[in-house]
Amino acid sequence: MNAAEMVTGHSTVDALRILHHELKQRLSQHQNRGGVTSDWIRFLHHANAYSLYHWTSVSFICGCILLLIIAYIVDELGNSWLILEAIILFLLLTVNLCFATWDDWLRRNELFDKASRVMVKIEACIKQGIWCPLNYIDLNCPSSQCVSLQWTIRDSSVINLPVGLLVEGDVILLRPGQVIPAKCQKIKTGDYEDDLANMAEFKAGDFYNPAQNLPELELFSKIEGREPLKPQAFLVLETPFVKNFSQILEKSFLRPVGMLDNERFAAYSIWIERRILPLIVFLMILTNALRYAFLHNEVGTLSDMILVLTVNSVVPLLALVFPIVWRLLDAWGVAKVILTFEEYTQTSRVKKRIPSGGSFKSEASLEGTLDLKLLWTDFFQAWKDVMVGQTDTLARTANLAQVFGNMTSFCCVDKKGVLSWPNPTAEKVFILTSRPPHSHHRPRRHSVKCKVPDGDPVADDLSFHHNKNEHGFPTEVSFQVLDLTQDTKNHYGLRFDDPSWSKYLSSLKPLGLNILLNTCNMETTYKYTEFADHVTCVSLKREEAVPVVNRRCFCELANIIGFSEKASANFTTEQTLGMYRHIPPESTSSERKLESSKSFLRYKMPMPNVFSVVVSDNCTGSRHLFSQGMSDLVLDSCSDFWDGEKIQPLGEAERKKIADFYHRTSMSSYCTAFSYRPLTESFGGEFSDIYLEVPEDVVAFHGPYVNKSYGFNQYEKRLLMNDRPYHGSAESLLLDDMVPDVHDIESCFRLQCSQVFIGMITMQYQAKQDIVDLIESLESACIRFVHFSKENELRSRVFSEKMGLEAGWNCHISLASEKALESKVDVSGSLENNREASIGYESQYPSQVLDDEDLIAIKGSSTVLRPSWLRSGRYGSAPEVATTQSQSIGSPMTPDKAPRLSQDVVNVIPQDCSAEADTLREIDRAVAGPTTPLLHHRSSDSAPSTCRQHPSAHATVSLAAKSESRSSLHRTRKRSSVDHRPTSSDQFFEKGFAGDGDVPESCGLHHGSILVDVPSDTYMLSRASSSDSFSRAVGLNNQAKLPRGIENIRPHIKNVDNVPLQVSLFTDCTAQTTQEMFCILQEFGEVTCCIGSSANVENTGVFLQADCSLAVEPTYPQICIHHSVIEKPSLSSSLTPMELSAELHSIPCSLYFATDDHSVIIHLVALARHHCERIRNVSKLYLMCQLSLVLFQLLNSVFLLPPALPPNVILWLTVVIVPLLSITLMGNPLNRKILQMAQGKNRSHFAKQTLLEELIYFFIRYIPTIVICLFCHGLNLLTFCQTASDSTANVTVSCHLLFGARLSEDASEPVWNGWYDRHHSGLVLSQQLITFELVLCFVIISLCSIHRLSYLWNTSPFVNRLWCAVTPIVILLQLIFFIGNTSLSSSRAEVAYSLGDIHVAVWVVTFVWPLLLVVLHELVKRREIKMWVRHQKRARLDFGTKLGMNSPF
């Protein structure tokens, strides 16, 4: 850090100015791209689904205007209405075109405007400039994948700066082993040679690995002292967020089209404009041309027949008001969603009204939630902001209402701090206790015997005889596993499940003291961070290793045990010691060959490390060593254990049980071991800046020190040579053979040996309760919650089960390709796993977890490895126990000397359990091949009917119970994060220790921890990959056949089945594979919503890919619950650095909210679904009514009648009446089943079956009304003709039902048989009456459309207040229009007709048919409801099944 001390870095104000300048410059470049011509071409293109207007729409309207002008010119009568209609169409075209152009401009600049508003916030921070180091996250805070931070020098102080705020010229401190956040170069130190060597530039995404200069692992064979690798100062050469910002600006228009927009585009642009309108034009011209040719004396002029009637027939389908109405209604929904979100998240009064958990269990709660009273002034203000583009919700490019209303997949890309609490919570506490046996007359035993407790439901208890009590009899040593449950109100709060846990308080006290003085000691946080960085960097030298650094806050546990916050004040921290050990390369070589041959997933091995703290007691002056770390290295450093009363020696049985517990829990949890020893030595030097690197052969180093004075053999010797029993205590460690003063590496190492084992704590990330409730609510709404996990399969499945997701058979897919698995990068895809809790490893090495169902005996390839605990007579580290090693390191055993399973092992295999036997045979064939079977089964004729234990037993191996996939199929779906219900890992753990296995009793196996007696020279290995990987390797039947790797997803969906679209868990994800999977989901019609951390700089691409994205502020990890994360600036209105960074990262997101507001999501989904249903009803009624008007005019020409709808009536109905009646459906009441409806796919076309059904329903609903109205029109003309015939005696009048009547006195030049001349008032009266009848029928149809899925007698339609208010206005307007037109025509006509001249049958039909229309509509609705119920049942069944190619669909 010497170089860093010579630079001060940017000041905060200067850095923000640079950031503001570069972002503003990049924004200006993107805004100036393109031109007016290209924008117009994109806007009017017929394939642009975003645009409300296309060149086809403009062409049809312009064509109509042109035809009307031509008709006016050639019309002999000079009808002035033609030119007036052309002017009205031109005005409507101009208004719609301007509106659509303005709307498209807002859409293209929507993201630019949001970015500009973020620029304003940066300027405000520049002006205020009040940030201090306390406003940043602590430097030593545990790192998290959800929070992108970088140590940076700002204002001459080292701060933990968000990566999004880094700028060019910043001085950053790269920690060893970290991922480089930006292009940078090492700062020159003045040494020419050193500067020349460091001229190379580092790219973003590379690993900073200064450990390359360390000696190779094979070059040293003794304990070495390593100086800590320090953070180095580097100069940032480019602003990293500029790339993200450019990506946002370039890809902001590439989001998928919303589902409603696709439906509008398919219905209006494709079907109406490109198919129906040309067809109508053709039919009208053909029909009227034939009429004019063969019935020339019965029709109008040529211009009327060919031009005017054709224009009038297509006017209802022209885009005259629909684009404007569509955008207004769409903005209506977005405004309501935004306003509701703000009310829920910002008003405490409204928050209290949210039902517990946010789950809509009752219809009443749903109705009360969505009927939230919003002020009309606030609503109209929000509506106006959406319309003019003054909102940050991206209402046009990522429409919230459309996405939430049609969402099929709710995807989360971040875990820690978003789905789970930021820090893992203590789940289990492992301690060793001693108790006298039930009988004092038992013979002395040294063999291990497992015992199952009679009925302790909380603590797993396993006893074994090893030591003697004060009477000389053996003492039962048992381990207790105490379960902990998280508090529902405080994620740090804990409580023991066992009400009698206090009886183990004496065993828990040392554990609590170790927590206070080591784990939660704020004086050692920087030293531990430095040690973690060093271990992380060193582990990069071997691809099989992954560092495990798992020091997290356990203050609450210590508080429960009885320690207060001030308890640590009695001690003074003197030294911190670090020790780590490499993984032997021999422990991985043969396994890698096996994996590569059988396509097993490769999981990295944990790198053993221990961090110790030396403290002194302020009262007595005594020194103590408190250690914590990985169990294997801690266990190797221990010679004794604390049983709650005294110190006892660690024997083989205790070591085996400790290692067994660690291996099992570390597969799916995070396990930390604790140890202690008193010190009498004084330090001759400072060892805090030296880490001990221990060679792989721990026997040569730990063995001599452990066994020399304090080992198990020494205790046995004392017991044998003395008559009195030996009582272990703290003083028992201070023997004659003292360790001299610590002054060198060897003495420092000896100081850390011969410790007392205290216990272990397992940790697990707990799902947040509101997330569990949200998932449950989404699932009931047929919305699939998809978790994109960066962790491996096993760990991801365990956490997914905690959230309530299905994670068993056919339920998860790994996105890591085979190439990625063969690379040097961990499958997790991020070094964060290595740093912050690279405790999240999963190993393929067998003894970490004895397999779910099967015990596999594997013969090595060229090297057969023997466990170190078999070599040394004790149980060693995790890597050593996990794999067999050769008796002497470096001397491989030849294949002919490789140990094989003896016949005694076969006796253990149940011969009558066919599944297990078949499994072993499959493994035999898969692993060893057909020529060298690994398992030599007995022949069928000699196999006994039951299995028995072989009498010559020398070792014990615990069989695991059934596989996780089988248990997940039978697990309970409703799971809470705080209930700690058994997950697959818990069941696996409990079955392995406490029994309850599924092995038949006839097999001769114990009910509890199953004992399998094998010879000592047999080495048993078990698989540790997940069940699906295993099944693929051995080819078992009835297993999931899912693709692995992102490159295989598309071919699988196209050629096999759609199961990848129904999976709720994707593992081994990176930002690139996640983005590609989003693209695949959208290609196959899924509507996706992405939720992710606003502090993760890698989420930009995924945010842009999803249909809409939600940025959530994560819960930041804490060093300790008593240490605050961030302090707000002194000016309350000022943003913190994390908030400003979140503003930048959330630019492509529609919403940004706090982590505790997840419950509002399901409410917004219900509200958006209700809005989308309303818009669909409005659009459907609008288009059907307009189509009925078109069909009415076509049939009018077919029936050879004079025009029943004049041009002014058509415009009146098209522009005023039909839109008003359609909009009334926006007031439809809440559908109480809205959250039980399965949503469809987002397709750019309609299914043929759907179109056929809708066409049939349309004909049934509207054709009878059209025919009846035309019949009334003909009957009216016939009646008027007869009336005229009676009143005109000197003129011969012929009346006909179809042709009307020849009323013209000059028959040589007839115009519609005289209805356009003297008797024009009769035609107008009939037209207005038919128009009123049509409007009345439209009102009845709208009434029946209010409850689309409910009958009128079940649900009153008058609950739609908007319909009740608008419908009378519509009828009144139509009456005014009726009276005005008839009065105007009567005043100008020579012959006047009145309502009294109308036939009685017409009046009867006019008022009776609407009642019959209600019956007809309800009959059609009955059919629709039946089809909808069938569709929903099928959709929900399809949603819930993952049978794939075996599915009935």
Layout of secondary structure:
Blueprint: H1 2-5, H2 12-31, H3 36-44, H4 55-74, H5 80-128, E1 149-154, E2 157-162, E3 171-174, E4 184-186, H6 192-197, E5 201-202, E6 224-226, E7 232-236, H7 241-251, H8 259-294, H9 302-314, H10 322-346, H11 348-351, H12 363-370, H13 376-388, H14 400-406, E8 409-412, E9 425-435, E10 460-468, E11 474-486, E12 494-496, H15 505-519, H16 525-539, E13 545-547, H17 555-561, E14 571-581, H18 586-598, E15 605-607, E16 609-617, E17 623-629, H19 631-636, E18 638-642, E19 647-649, H20 652-666, E20 670-679, E21 691-694, H21 702-708, H22 712-721, H23 745-751, E22 755-764, H24 769-780, E23 784-788, H25 793-803, E24 812-814, H26 818-822, H27 832-835, H28 868-872, H29 878-882, H30 903-908, H31 914-928, H32 964-969, H33 984-994, H34 1027-1034, H35 1049-1055, E25 1065-1067, H36 1071-1083, E26 1088-1093, H37 1100-1105, E27 1108-1113, H38 1137-1145, E28 1151-1154, H39 1160-1198, H40 1207-1223, H41 1248-1287, E29 1295-1296, E30 1300-1301, H42 1320-1344, H43 1361-1388, H44 1400-1440
Parallel strand pairs: 8-23, 8-26, 13-15, 14-21, 18-22, 23-25, 24-25, 26-27, 27-28
Antiparallel strand pairs: 1-2, 1-3, 3-7, 4-5, 4-7, 6-21, 9-11, 9-22, 10-11, 11-12, 14-16, 16-17, 17-20, 18-19, 20-22, 29-30
Helix pairs in contact: 2-5, 2-7, 4-5, 4-9, 8-9, 8-39, 9-39, 10-13, 10-39, 14-39, 15-17, 39-40, 39-41, 40-42, 40-43, 41-42, 41-44, 42-43, 42-44
